[in-house]
Amino acid sequence: MMGRDDIPVALGEVFAMNQADPYSSVVGDCKYAKAIPHGSGGFLDSDTLFGLARDLPRSPRRYTAENSLEFGAHRNTTQPELRHPLSLESVMKTLDPGLKITILTNGPLTNLAKIILSETNTISQIQEVFIVGGHTGHRSNKGNVFTVPSNKYVEFNMFLDPLAAKTVFNSGLNITLIPLSTQRKLCSFPEILERLQLTRETPEAKFAERLLSKLYCLQQANQRYQHVDIFLGEILGAVLLGSDYSSLNPTFREKNIRVNAEGDESTDGQLVIDKWQGKPVRVLKNIDPVAYYDLFTNRLGDKEQSAVLGSYDEQKKIWSKPSNQTANPQISPVMISDNRN
């Protein structure tokens, strides 16, 4: 969309850790993933960007089979130059020795856990991790996994792979947690849309305004979309990493956190404050909401930070070719996997 092809995009894991079918690695157990709705703000809407994907040119790249059996592929793609790698494969190939990186996650922690458990020394190169997710609030405030009534105090990203969350929190990494309680303080569509409408000078700002407007309209029109305002809070991770966030007046507290991952759907993924068995984590407790909306919209509207657009018409011509002329038409069985992660 931005006329660029220099930013690696990798395919995330489809199933939670220890959820793969023992007889076929490409088929897994949907014990946790089944909690995500298929429509109404779930898989289908994510795949189509709530309908906006129809307005974007079709990329020639595909989530095809890997080109190397060493990463578990059961076949090779005929055009490896047009395929997306797996997340672990991408990190292993692109990370320079001695380079320190900061990781931001806004989904289940499956991919990060796989990196931590890999035989490479990648974990030593991770300087810090910002995790958008988890629920550390008071018991009077419920979590957001509304499709599993028995688990009242869990947040979606932790529930979708509790074992991965436990692996990451026990890894000893320098972790900053942006919990659900903090995200919920930043869920005003009118506030952010008013600012975006005044800063629509870049393609990024225009796109964000259209997408968030669609979410707001759906939320007002249909009860099944009442939960989509939480996506505004998930943007917070990108705002923290993409700018000097001191203007947000953030308040952090250190807490010892333990993750429930016992195979019990009524408690899995819950974060427990445990002074003795928990691991120290820096938790973002408060920020200035008005400053957050301003910083987000100003950053998107900054022309100096905007990507340089290539020829949109030329891209449309190239990307509109039949798939057999641009890439292997065999698409990964579960395209929704990059939404889950």
From TrEMBL:
PANTHER family: INOSINE-URIDINE PREFERRING NUCLEOSIDE HYDROLASE FAMILY PROTEIN, NUCLEOSIDE HYDROLASE 3-RELATED
Biased composition (Polar residues): 321-331
Source organism per UniProt: Rubroshorea leprosula
Domain called Inosine/uridine-preferring nucleoside hydrolase: residue spans: 2-293
UniProt region (Disordered), positions on chain: 319-341
Protein name: Inosine/uridine-preferring nucleoside hydrolase domain-containing protein
GO molecular function term, any single one: hydrolase activity, hydrolyzing N-glycosyl compounds
Similarity field: Belongs to the IUNH family.
